[in-house]
Write a structure and sequence with these properties.
The structure holds five protein chains of five kinds.
Chain B: H1 2-19, H2 25-49, E1 58-66, E2 71-77, H3 79-102, H4 107-126, H5 130-139, H6 141-151, H7 156-189, H8 196-201, H9 214-229, H10 238-245, H11 248-273, H12 275-301, H13 306-327, H14 330-361, H15 372-375, H16 377-390, H17 397-412, H18 414-439, H19 445-448, H20 459-477, H21 479-495, H22 509-515, H23 517-522
Antiparallel strand pairs in B: 1-2
Helix pairs in contact in B: 1-2, 1-4, 2-3, 2-4, 3-4, 3-11, 3-14, 3-20, 3-21, 4-5, 4-6, 5-7, 6-7, 7-9, 7-10, 9-11, 10-13, 11-13, 11-14, 12-13, 12-18, 13-14, 13-17, 13-18, 14-16, 14-17, 14-20, 14-21, 16-18, 17-18, 17-20, 20-21
Chain C: H1 4-9, H2 13-33, H3 37-62, H4 66-96
Helix pairs in contact in C: 2-3, 3-4
Chain D: H1 2-40, H2 56-66, H3 77-96, E1 104-106, E2 109-111, E3 114-116, E4 119-121, H4 131-140, H5 142-152, H6 156-187, H7 192-198, E5 204-207, E6 210-213, H8 222-225, H9 227-240, H10 252-255, H11 265-290, H12 301-311, H13 316-346, H14 354-384
Antiparallel strand pairs in D: 1-4, 2-3, 5-6
Helix pairs in contact in D: 1-2, 1-3, 1-11, 1-13, 2-11, 3-4, 3-5, 3-11, 5-6, 6-9, 6-14, 9-11, 9-14, 11-13, 12-13
Classes of the chains: A mainly alpha, B mainly alpha, C mainly alpha, D mainly alpha, E mainly alpha.
Chain lengths: ~675, ~525, ~110, ~375, ~180
């Protein structure tokens, strides 16, 4: 392969000319789009155009020179594109803040058939403003991080192209003013996820992981589609604003069979796929096959939260279908606990984080399910900060360990990777919910509302707290095994701190993990500290309040807060003891509960169940269908008919025996008969 | 004259090509390509002059052919056939150029066949006289027969015979039905006519629940012909064989255009001619279409041969179109029409790419592949794009069509919708699995041991693929550019389905009156 | 006053037609009964001649020249047919050293 | 009844006379040929019997008549005997259709108390409107004589000769017929009398609507209109008559004597008569089509008749008879010339090879003849257009 | 009252039919061919009796002169002798063949008997002079039937090529030796 590889390095003149031409064309396209916005509408349209087209431009620029190995150039362009988007996001968010409402624009009509009129229309309201800030902000940081991370890769240009494409699609998802444009982004991010997970496609397992992600997502997407149809046939529109308005007009429906409930359930299927909830979460841990920054961006901070975002986006609709919300809450809570429990036993640093993500997403859905959409968005944001931080941190570790991901072969990295360790520590504190770190505020709001909301239940709260304890335990375990204690690093590996392009994002994210939660200080505390709940104000008007939410006693809230924090604290202390002080204990416990341990360690055999009981039988059945229905039944039937015809033919062909005089006789007889008929 | 020009120019050029000595392969290819481009240019003129505000037939040409039987040379175009015509003229140059690599022997015969085939296909999309339609419909079999039979693979004779007999059987039924309709016209109006427009005016007796009544029988006679051509589920087995044995250009033209003749027939004949029967039996066709979607996808998943996989994916995709058409609402019908174009573009592109792979490694067995993306990155990218179109990822053309079809289906029944949606999942499954096994993973047996370095796409091959890729995105991004032309026609078809009438564009009516066959017959 | 026999014997169109019919039937018999390809070809010529007689007779009795034109065409076709038929006969003879019509059975698929 | 019987009698008499003329001409031609060849080859030839060997003819006739009749073993009797007759008859029939002079117009006269006439006797066996077509048709039957002879003799030489002969005849018949088409286009008729009538007087034709008239001595002969056709026709007639340089059927070196190898005596003589008959017919046609037939250059028939009427004191019948005789003599002179050319060529040119013969016929003469037709047609179209 | 023309017709008809019968009964193909030639000539005579002089001439040239000569040549070339069983075998089929031919003749005869009297009862009109008739023939042929004429021309060309191709022998006198 050496020669072919060499061959590929050199760009042929055709490629070069093509790349340059397309670069010019694309630049013209970008400028044209911006110009269009400036000329036709206003600065808003132009901002939207730049926001969307900058990553697309980055994608095309890098994509057309995908053979390039120049990580610096590719990365810079990509990062700049993301940063341009970020600036636009800020501008738009400010506009939204100033307007106290949505800012919209429409580029063109996409599909106009019958009653269906879908425009390529985009809107920023308070929900999406937050979302684009997170996505472009974190996205920019991760792009920056990637420059260093991918510097030794074979195809950095392709990588950045995919990353920019992802950003573009994510923005479509967020900004689309109707379900279909959201669906475009929805599938688009899935596609990018597929491409990025399978980025190192030469490894069969990584390619398989990408495929698995895509197909699992597809199942969810199918549900999403059905949801779109249902909504369209209820409301005659796919526009978010109109749907929400009409849902509000109709009011809540009871029972399970109502069209809105059905629509919500269909949409929730979509959300479980995209946001890795039970039963479609299986792809996310496998998705760790992709480059680590990708895991940070897509599989922690942004894409996987799309389901939550979608539900929040449609919160009036979901509120009109309380039964659907119950399903969301239960699925969320159960996922939170299940995933956390699996996280306890994983040895792969990224897998731990992956299950952690699933678990945290469960919290967000729990929040949605109890009607606390603001809390869900809040946790979404803080989670984006600290989980991105931790993934990038793990990326830094993996980079330092030359690609090693098994935490059993780490330990004591604190010294070698001080910045990484420091920032990771902040993330750890955030995720286990230590006040005043970001995670504390958001998670606590969820737990409180799950208890307190009329849509909630104490059982949900209990699950949430249990999950929090598990979270604290496995995160501490991760910290302990990776950074603390004695070194188990194999010989020949010399961990070293990453370059600034990687550490700077870490630091920024670390800071955000600390302060990110302060915009949503709960009333119970904030009242005392005179700190307002910024976020709640921000969402006023965009997110409906929980219907029938009674004022609660501050004492109860603080008490519950104390319970959860202390349980988490205890849990992490226990983990510290287990994995730093008395390292023999985990083995003993595992031996004691062998069966349970195996169950958890093997992720409850869900993958095995899916493959063994659904996919393999389906493939086998397809083989049989082919062999028996197609080949044996239909073709045999055809042959039988053919044989019949041939039989008739073989009888009839005795007439045509090649004896021309007999033919002539037939002719004569025929002519005679004709004459007879004429004369008759 | 425009339609006649579009229809018969390829035939004329075929004659021209036939006059070039067979040894001058380059000249033949160049002339063939140029001529198909000229025809494409003409069809663009048609597009530019097309009046999208009316559902009436446009550019009508009508000359008596057999005046005694009311058979006329009757061409016309409306929003339903317009895009199929353009699809045909668009794909032909692509195929022509694409064939440079795969057709090395008997170049002249191939290009003559291709051009004759183009005439036949265009004729069947443009013919508004049932007999004329039948003639073109059948004529299209002949060049295809040669294409598979001469330039095909090892079992080509088996495949051609199967293909030919299957299709022939169905169309014979259709011929009988056409003759019946001509007589029916004679019985009610007093003169023979084979004009489809006149057929629309007939009221054919229908009895619900019974099989033996004229409309139901005629309905099934037509439906059988088109169902085989499409092909619909239990009648599909000729397709994989034909595709596997056909040379690449043959596959492209077969999947790209010829299958559309079946679905077009449903739209032009079956639905409007037999409204009651079509409504009554719609469940059956939706049912079979759904089975086709799922069954085609499942069987595609386990195919060991790339081309066969794509062929079965065609079965699945065509199932969508059938379901969409028989949903009988504006979404389903629009989606169905759009999906015809999509399938032409995407599956055509897929077959071309498979052909390009085959030209390099001379095998289509999936298990022998792997890691092809590393050896042939450009091809892999194109293949991935086309795959995305085939599995209907948004912003590609496939999404628009499939979305509309699913929506139409969902409107008919939620259950239908749910079943149809599974096709979306399975479609992704088999295509991506195939992509994974062929392009990803470690280098496979064939990729490693070809004995010569695999060459990535040549400029010619990129030129072949470029228009298809552009179209994939264009159709996905701006479906309105295309649907605007068909909208009025489809809405007319759906809304007045119980009493569908097609008129001739009034501005051209004077011409028609002058050459109407009846006045000829009266002499 | 011509008698009945004379009336019947007086040559009219019918006489030519009957002559032609008989001649044609002779040709038919030749085609049906003979084995030799060449004789069969000759019998066909016989039939064509019979037809020519009919044409000319009708032409004469209806005062229409078109019949003679037809005869030209028939003669041309006859010449062509003889040429190809004989060529085939030559081939058959080369192969089988005999020109029995039955050898043409080998031509069936 | 009376008219029929009279006509039949007259026709039979005419046919007999013409047949006898042909038969009588043959010994003379044989003598000429022998003497002529001797002259050409610088030897004496038959000069013993009678003056200039003229009586040699009689001697030969006697020898032919009294030779032994014999039938080769295995010969097919009927064919063997029928063949010479078949060789003789077409020539005679063809000759009978050729006008040998202007018609004799007999004014009404009284004889045996009955009133006869007026009659018009044509110097021709019988008049057929489509004369040339008939002649071609009849002479094409000549092939049967050869074939029957070849087959009936049960001899390989004969058979080969016969096959060659008939193939040659069929081949050259095409060129023959086509070469005539050109001149027929010019005349616009098949009728010999009309053709000859058109060739009387000085050369005159229309050229783009203008009438062009040549000097009085230049006759209005077909050869000036269609020289290529004339050459082709002449060449084809050589082949048709199986004369050198086209005498492949009786090529002595290869086939002994071709189809008449097995013949002797009177039957042999009949073949000779057939062959010379062919020559006579061909010469006559050449004269009629290209050289004014019985017309005298510079002296059209009408003028001749007028001069005779003026110069003698004969009645109209006598004038007509005299005119006919003079014209006939003119034809005879031309015939003699052409026949001499036949003989001259025979003793001058060598024989073709068989494939050369076929090539010449199919690949040279046929295209030339076709081109001649086309060119003539175009020329006529142009010339007659105004 | 029978005239000369009538006797001529009967004579020619007799010759024609005898010739025809002889063609199909002669055991030796060469006699068949010669008899056929005779039939052709007498058919030409029939044409003459119908005032179709030109066609008669063409009949002589084409049929008697060329086509039949070709037949005779081929037969001679093959050296076909008297055939021991010249007729195809099979009692049943033979009977069937004879019967069908008989039926055929009967039907045609019957139709002639039934129809011709009524259709062509009036005595034939005299055609113009033969020369004019030939011109009329040419006019019809080259105006009304010009297309057919051209088609026939093309057909002849095709046939000529086909016959040459069929009977071409590899390595004949004109083959290139190398």
């Amino acid at each position: 392969m050496g020669s072919t590889g060499h061959h590929n390095h050199e760009s042929s003149p055709v490629d070069l000319i093509g790349a340059n031409l397309s670069f010019l064309g694309l630049a013209a396209l970008l400028l044209g789009g911006i110009g269009y916005g400036l000329r036709n509408a206003d600065a808003t349209a132009a901002t939207f155009a730049i926001l969307l087209l900058a990553p697309l431009f980055g994608f095309l620029f890098n994509g057309l020179r995908f053979r390039s190995k120049n990580a610096r150039l590719s990365g810079s362009v990509a990062t700049l594109a993301a940063f341009a988007s970020f600036l636009c996001s800020i501008s738009l968010a400010m506009k939204v803040g100033a307007a106290h409402g949505a800012v919209s624009t429409k580029f063109f009509d996409w599909m106009t058939i019958g009653d269906l009129n879908v425009a390529a229309g985009f809107t920023v309201d308070k929900i999406s403003a937050l979302m684009i800030l997170v996505v472009t902000g974190v996205g920019t940081l991760i792009h920056l991080f990637s420059i260093g991370y991918m510097s030794h890769d074979d195809r950095p240009s392709k990588y950045f192209a995919y990353l920019n494409l992802f950003l573009f699609n994510m923005l479509l998802l967020i900004l689309g003013d109707n379900l279909l444009v959201m669906f475009v982004g929805w599938e688009g991010v899935g596609l990018c996820s597929y491409l990025l997970i399978g980025f190192w496609f030469s490894d069969s397992e990584k390619a398989a992981a990408g495929m698995k992600a895509f197909i699992t997502n597809r199942i969810g997407d199918a549900g999403f589609l059905l949801g779109i149809f249902t909504l369209f046939f209820i409301f005659g529109t796919v526009n978010f604003a109109e749907i929400n308005q009409r849902a509000l007009d109709i009011g809540a429906e009871s029972g399970w069979g109502g069209p809105m409930t059905l629509a919500c359930l269909f949409l929730f299927i979509g959300a479980t796929g995209k946001s890795a909830q039970i039963p479609l979460y299986v792809w996310l841990p496998d998705a760790m096959a992709g480059p680590t920054p990708v895991s940070a961006l897509i599989h922690a901070a942004t894409m996987v939260t799309a389901g939550v975002y979608m539900i929040v986006r449609l919160n009036p609709l979901f509120l009109a279908a309380p039964n659907a919300l119950h399903v969301v809450a239960v699925v969320g809570a159960v996922t939170a606990v299940t995933a956390a429990s699996i996280g306890l036993t994983q040895w792969d640093i990224k897998k731990v984080l992956a299950y952690s993500t699933v678990s945290q997403l469960g919290y967000m859905f729990l929040a949605c399910g109890v009607g606390a959409f603001g809390a869900a968005m809040f946790h979404l944001m803080t989670h984006a900060f600290f989980k991105a931080l931790m993934f990038l941190g793990s990326g830094s570790v993996i980079h330092a360990m030359n690609g090693e991901q098994d935490i059993r072969k780490m330990g004591g990295l604190k010294k070698a990777l001080p910045i990484t360790h420091g920032t990771f520590l902040l993330g750890w504190l955030a995720i286990i919910g230590m006040p005043p770190f970001a995670g504390f505020f958001s998670k606590d709001e969820i737990l409180w509302l799950s208890f307190h909301s009329p849509l909630g239940h104490w059982g949900l709260w209990l699950l949430g707290v249990f999950g929090a304890a598990l979270t604290a335990f496995y995160m501490t375990r991760l910290m302990a095994l990776t950074f603390w204690g004695g070194s188990r690093v194999p010989n020949g590996v010399h961990p070293h701190e990453s370059p600034p392009s990687m550490t700077v994002p870490l630091i920024v994210l670390g800071a955000l993990s600390v302060v990110g939660g302060w915009i949503g200080v709960p009333h119970a505390i904030g009242h005392a500290l005179h700190v307002p709940h910024f976020l709640e104000h921000w969402f006023q008007g965009a997110i409906l309040g929980i219907p029938g939410l009674k004022p609660a006693s501050t004492a109860l809230e603080i008490a519950l807060m104390g319970v959860s924090v202390s349980i988490a604290g205890l849990s992490s202390v226990a983990a510290f003891v287990f994995y730093v002080r008395r390292t023999e204990l985990p083995g003993k416990v595992a031996a004691k509960f062998r069966g349970f341990y195996d169950l958890v360690h093997n992720k409850y055999f869900v993958d095995e169940f899916y493959f063994g009981k659904i996919i393999d039988p389906l493939v086998e059945a397809s083989r049989n269908l082919w062999a028996y229905v197609d080949v044996s039944f239909i073709d045999r039937g055809t042959y039988a008919v053919a044989d019949m015809v041939r039989g008739v033919g073989s009888v009839a062909k005795t007439v045509q025996n090649g004896n021309m005089q007999q033919y002539a006789l037939y002719v004569v007889l025929g002519v005679a008969a004709t004459i007879f008929l004429i004369l008759r | 004259m425009l339609l006649s020009a579009i229809t018969f120019f390829p035939l004329l050029f075929a004659l021209l090509v036939a006059c070039i000595p067979g040894s001058r392969a380059r000249v033949i290819r160049a002339v063939s390509l140029a001529s198909s481009l000229i025809v494409f240019g003409l069809s663009l003129v048609l597009l530019a002059k097309f009046d999208r505000a009316t559902a009436a037939l446009q550019f009508v040409e009508r000359l008596p052919w057999v005046p005694e039987l009311g058979v006329s040379y009757f061409l016309g175009v409306d929003g339903i056939s317009l895009w199929l015509v353009i699809l045909t003229t668009f794909l032909t140059p692509v195929i022509s150029l694409g064939s440079w690599g795969s057709i090395a022997a008997k170049v002249k015969g191939f290009h003559v066949s291709l051009l004759v085939l183009e005439t036949a296909m265009l004729g069947s999309f443009l013919a508004m006289d049932a007999i004329l339609f039948y003639v073109f419909f059948e004529l299209s079999l002949v060049p295809m027969y040669f294409m598979i039979g001469i330039w095909g693979g090892a079992r080509r004779i088996y495949a051609t015979v199967k293909f030919f007999i299957y299709t022939m059987l169905g169309s014979l039924m259709m011929l009988l039905a056409i003759i019946y309709l001509m007589y029916a016209h004679h019985d009610t109006v007093g003169v023979f006519s084979a004009s489809v427009l006149d057929f629309y005016k007939l009221k054919i007796p229908f009895v619900a629940g019974s099989f033996i009544n004229p409309q139901t029988l005629l309905f099934f006679a037509f439906a059988l012909a088109f169902a085989i051509k499409v092909p619909m589920f239990p009648l599909h087995t000729w397709l994989p064989d034909a595709h596997v044995e056909a040379p690449t250009p043959g596959s492209v033209v077969l999947a790209g255009v010829m299958l559309k003749m079946g679905t077009y027939g449903f739209m032009r004949f079956v639905l409007p001619l037999f409204p009651e029967a079509a409504s009554y039996w719609a469940w059956l066709f939706i049912f079979l279409g759904l089975i086709g979607i799922v069954y085609g996808a499942l069987v595609a998943m386990v195919q060991p041969d790339i081309k066969k996989l794509v062929a079965y994916s065609s079965v699945s995709h065509m199932g969508y179109i059938i379901v969409g058409l028989f949903a009988m609402n504006v979404y389903g019908a629009t989606g169905g029409l759009y999906q015809m174009l999509n399938h032409g573009v995407s599956t055509g592109a897929l077959f071309l790419l498979v052909g390009m792979i085959y030209e390099r490694t001379h095998s289509r067995e999936i298990v022998k592949y792997g890691g092809l993306a590393k050896a042939l990155p450009v091809l892999a990218i194109l293949f991935l794009i086309v795959t995305m179109s085939s599995i209907a990822v948004p912003l590609t053309n496939g999404f628009v069509g499939e979305f509309l079809i699913l929506m139409g289906t969902f409107q008919v029944s939620k259950a239908y919708g749910v079943v149809a949606v599974t096709g979306v999942i399975l479609g992704a499954a088999y295509m991506l699995w195939m992509v994974k096994r062929v392009f990803f993973g470690p280098a496979g047996e064939l990729v490693e041991n070809t004995g010569h370095p695999l060459r990535d796409l040549s400029p010619r091959e990129i030129v072949v693929m470029a228009p298809l890729v552009v179209l994939i995105f264009w159709m996905g991004l701006f479906p309105n550019h295309f649907l605007d032309y068909s909208k009025v026609s489809i809405e007319h078809l759906i809304e007045t389905r119980d009493n569908y009438q097609l008129t001739v564009n009034p501005s051209e009516a004077t011409d028609v009156a002058r050459t109407t066959p009846r006045s000829e017959a009266g002499k | 006053m011509p008698n009945t026999i004379d009336t019947i014997l007086k040559v009219s169109l019918n006489h030519y037609l009957v002559l032609s019919a008989v001649l044609f039937t002779l040709g038919v018999l030749g085609v049906l009964l003979r084995k030799n390809v060449i004789v069969i070809l000759m019998s066909i010529e016989l039939m064509l001649n019979a037809v020519n007689v009919t044409f000319i007779a009708f032409s004469r009795y209806s005062g229409n020249i078109d019949g003679q034109v037809m005869v030209f065409f028939v003669m041309t076709i006859a010449a062509a047919e003889a040429a190809v038929g004989l060529a085939l006969a030559v081939l058959i003879f080369r192969r089988f050293k005999e020109i029995n019509i039955r050898y043409f059975e080998h031509l069936r698929g | 009844m009376g008219v029929d019987a009279f006509e039949i009698v007259i026709n039979v008499v005419k046919l007999l006379v013409i047949f006898l003329m042909m038969i009588q001409a043959v010994p003379i031609l044989v003598w000429v040929e022998r003497r002529g060849s001797a002259f050409i080859q610088n030897r004496f030839g038959p000069n013993r019997v009678g003056p200039l060997g003229l009586l040699q003819l009689l001697a030969d006739a006697v020898k032919f008549l009294f030779k032994e009749e014999f039938l080769p073993r295995k010969a097919v009797r009927f064919l063997y005997y029928a063949a010479p007759v078949m060789a003789l008859v077409p020539g005679a029939l063809a000759l009978a259709a050729i006008p040998l002079g202007p018609p004799i117009e007999v004014s009404a006269f009284e004889l045996f108390g009955q009133r006869w006439g007026p009659y018009v006797f044509k110097l021709q066996g019988y008049d057929i409107g489509v004369g040339i077509v008939f002649i071609l048709g009849v002479s094409s039957l000549g092939a049967y004589g050869l074939l029957m002879a070849g087959w009936g003799s049960a001899s390989k030489y004969s058979l080969l000769g016969a096959l060659r002969a008939s193939a040659q005849m069929i081949s050259y018949e095409l060129a023959l017929g086509l070469s005539l088409v050109g001149i027929l286009l010019v005349y616009g008729t098949f009728n010999f009398y009309e053709i000859i009538a058109q060739q009387q007087g000085p050369l005159s034709f229309s050229w783009f609507g203008r009438e062009v008239v040549g000097p009085w001595w230049l006759p209005n002969w077909g050869v000036f209109y269609n020289p290529v056709g004339m050459i082709l026709f002449a060449a084809s007639t050589f082949a048709e008559a199986n004369r050198l340089p086209f005498d492949l059927p009786e090529a002595e070196g290869e086939l002994v004597a071709g189809f008449h190898t097995e013949y002797g005596g009177f039957k042999m003589l009949m073949f000779y008569i057939g062959e010379y008959g062919h020559m006579i017919v061909a010469s006559s046609l050449l004269a009629i089509f290209y050289f004014g037939g019985y017309g005298i250059p510079g002296l059209p028939v009408e003028v001749l008749e007028a001069k005779i009427a003026a110069g003698t004191s004969l009645g109209p019948t006598g004038v007509s008879v005299l005119t006919s005789v003079v014209s006939h003599l003119a034809l005879l002179v031309k015939l003699g010339l052409f026949l001499w050319i036949f003989i001259w060529v025979r003793w001058t040119l060598p024989r073709f090879r068989y494939d050369q013969l076929m090539d010449l016929g199919w690949k040279s003469m046929l295209p030339w003849a076709l081109a001649n037709v086309v060119v003539t047609a175009v020329w006529l179209l142009l010339a007659n257009s105004k | 009252m029978l005239e000369l023309a009538d006797y001529t017709f009967y004579f020619l008809a007799l010759v024609t039919l005898v010739g025809g019968i002889a063609v199909i009964t002669a055991q030796n193909p060469i006699y068949s061919a010669l008899w056929l030639a005779l039939t052709m000539v007498s058919v030409a005579g029939v044409f003459v009796s119908l005032d179709a002089w030109f066609v008669a001439g063409v009949q002589l040239i084409v049929y008697a002169g060329a086509v039949m000569v070709l037949f005779v040549m081929v037969i001679m070339l093959f050296d076909l002798r008297r055939e021991t069983n010249a007729f195809s075998r099979g009692m049943v089929s033979g009977f069937l063949k004879l019967a069908s031919a008989g039926i055929f003749l009967g039907l045609i005869g019957g139709s002639i008997y039934n129809s011709a009297e009524t259709v062509f009862a009036p005595p034939p009109a005299e055609l113009e002079k033969t020369a004019d008739a030939t011109k009329a023939l040419a006019n019809t042929l080259f105006t009304k039937y010009i297309f057919s004429f051209e088609v026939i021309g093309v057909l002849l060309l095709v046939i000529a090529i086909g016959a040459v191709t069929l009977s071409r022998v590899q390595g004949g006198t004109h083959a290139k030796h190398d």
